[in-house]
Design brief:
It contains ten helices and no strands. It is mainly α and 211 residues long. The protein is globular, with a radius of gyration of 20 Å.
Amino acid sequence: MTRPTSPRTTRRRRAARREILDAAWSLLDAEGAAALTADAIAARADISKASVFYYFPSMEQVFGELLREELHAYAAALTAAVEACDEPRSVLGEVVRLTHARYTQRPERFILIGAVPLTRGAAAVGLEDGEVARSVDPPFNAFIDVVEARLAEVDLPQGVDPRRAAVAAHMAAMGAVLLCHTTRAAGGGFARPESELVDELAGLLERGVTR
């Protein structure tokens, strides 16, 4: 018969996992996803490599948890921004502006949620069994619910589905961030300031779904 885990043991386990994840975030933001190894995380957290694997049996689980945390944080930020938007007609534009600002300031986190699953494969970031995806569905659905509620405050053109509009705005925002990062990585630039182009994309989305 399995003995129940005591509250103290549970707290210690959570604290240890948090310490490991904080070290992983610190490495990711400073040096990129390529720096995320068990040895590097152990050194940053000042623990043994064995301790890392005691709490996370594989690096795939570390990547999966980082991915889950970032997607939860991003969805929460989107929801808060839409709720706080003074003008309901501007909510889709706010999605674009927030996404661009967030991942311009945190490029390695954008790579984590975008490029790493593509280049390393779903299994490498704990996505193969669908657990992370199932985890992030509720916060992103909450974001879409809030967009739908805010757009209900304005007169939408016939045929505009606010939920689809929210998804389209999110896709456009992520595409814009990818284009900006790719252009910078190639050593190029835009004919106009990046902020102006982001504002123009935001304006197009706002005008496209409201009268």
